[in-house]
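User: Okay, second chain of the day. Same drill as before: sequence in, structure tokens out.
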Amino acid sequence: MQIENFEKINTLGELKKAGYRPRSIKEELRVNLIYKIKNKKNIFPGIIGYDHSVIPDLQRAILAKHNITLLGLRGQAKTRIARQMIELLDEYVPAIEGSELNDDPLKPISRYAFDLIKEKGDNTPIYWIHRSERYTEKLATPDVSVADLVGDVDPIKAASLKIPYSDERVIHFGLIPRSHRCIFVINELPDLQARIQVALFNILQEGDMQIRGFKIRLPLDIQFVFTANPEDYTNRGAIVTPLKDRVESQILTHYPKSIELAKMITAQEAKIPIESKEQVYVHDLIKDIIEQISFEARKSEYIDPKSGVSARLSISAYENLISSAERRMLITNEDATFARISDLSGVVPAVTGKIELVYEGEQEGSAKVAYNLMGKAIRSQFTYYFPNPEDSKKKQDVSPYQKIINWFSAGNKIDLLLDDKTSQYEKRLMAVSGLKDLVKIYHPGADHKTSLLFMEFVLFGLAEYSFLTKYHLEHAIQFKDLFSSMFTISGEEEEDSDLESYS
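Assistant: Same drill. Structure tokens below.
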């Protein structure tokens, strides 16, 4: 319970007079959650896309005073949720000064606390613990031992205190007993060796612990939160059945279900320098394509679905996109710029570093898979802005893109240099017959830079729908007529060993 003017209370006697009553951490979480729900408080700020799924399940688990397992693929905010649970704790709670186990003054559990209270009575000194100090997190790794988590006999203590090994004061407590009255999180629980998981049984079931052969009982008061990846259950390890049975609530997390939610997460998490935000404009079209890359990756035949595609892919890709545009701006000595479709070439490192390929993907190569995903993302987004190029084929109508296609069929090509000045970029796009007029028809209200972006987008879209051929050169992206490129290879292309086609 929270006490006013707690900073003036420094002894056990003063705490009793203030009317303090101890309560368990699960009761503490429950009471504070009830208060926040009734007062319409934002309980988990910054957690996006879980309002009707994960967060209600989490609230039910806390109200039921359950230990919790958050089960989901990587990059689904599991650890972030666990860390935010500390905001449901009381701001400050009292503890006996000098105790390793955060002993509650009115409900002590350690030998140290009992001895101190016996010696000093109501003059026993206390201190106040802020909720930020009541959180412990441990990543499960193969080298974690029972001693790390629970504790072990410490011969140095025995020697320094000159006491026999039969005295429980020789025990060095592990992370779990030191987390008494705290939230204790174990990340990637299945990676914990089975024998270590067994050591958690009694703590979860009975709320107490035993170390070696000591006949001690420590009724620990801990809110356990475990995180796990479904992949771990089959590939690297498993949660042993008796332990899984003792965790009352298992909550399934998921990836954002819409582009809009995904954009909100990326906008919140991306670390963009202030000057970059001011100098580089990013249209919603580009943001949509960045998010669509992740959506395409999650259903790609080249990527392991059990591994998942983290939301960090979109975040890193967006950061790389901004830096690509910024780098071009610095090279061309311009004061400001806007992100182009061709800047997506700069996000390849962000994509390749965030995906786990299956055998077929390894055969293709990670860079080619990344370009493939970007192409599919452009194709998916294209019909939100322009007519589907395939519709005119099916209906045997005149294509709105015919004038553009005819221009390329006449033997023309366009090279969009990755480091072109805006003026040169505009000049190259304006040279394509029918491109400007098409954008004006379907987006008459677009400003100048948006019109240029849409013009470039049309070229990429036609390439993804196989009406043009697109080549990624070392320093540029080239668009040519589809059929002529099948039979002719220019001398420039022969000289460029890095030329690749992804259409």
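The radius of gyration is 31 Å.

User: Thanks, on to the next one.
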